[in-house]
Amino acid sequence: MSLFDLIMKGGVLMIPISLCSVFALGIIVERAIHFRKAGGNANRLKEKLEPLIIGNKVSEGRLLCEESGGVISSVFRVALQELQREPDMSQPVEDEIEVTRRVIDEELQVSILPALEKHLNALDTLARGTPLLGLLGTVLGMIKVFFTIGIGQSVPDPSVLAKGIGLALITTAAGLIVAIPAFFTHRYFMGKVDYHLEEAQKAKGWLLAQLAKRRLITMAG
To answer: How many of the other CB atoms lie within 10 Å of CB of 10?
Structure first.
């Protein structure tokens, strides 16, 4: 029996299970591409950005961040945009650092985190819901088999009974085939979200240290 025959004989619930598999695969591919782009090269960006910040070349640093990709470049970009908007070096360094910290935290919550978590709730729903569809299909198939046995006048053929039960179990197997990879990839992507947020917090600390260093060099000069 071919895979197509199994799908056709699995019952009407194989249609939503098949659709769930398509949606899950689409989300997995899209998120894999997104997280690949979200990485960037943070160390190289820091090396290029440090002399620009120390030299008070904020606009050039912002352009560098815009040309770079990844979560870290987004963190640096919004911070440098704020510094470019408020170039007053006479304000206390504590105020400058606090404003920069607030801007970065807001960017993380409003923009970066939602972008990282996009579609992950849907993937989690597919991982949890598809086995239930498969189980429902199996239960309905078993009910059909036993009703057939109940209305029969003779002892049912064991081979026919086994075939009917086997077909009823197809939907459960199909649901698990979709749900298992969806579950593990969802956990993997959530780990990537935590990793990028942790790296963003480290980048924030690095940037605030560079701002303090810039102010000390400016005051010493």
So the answer is: 24
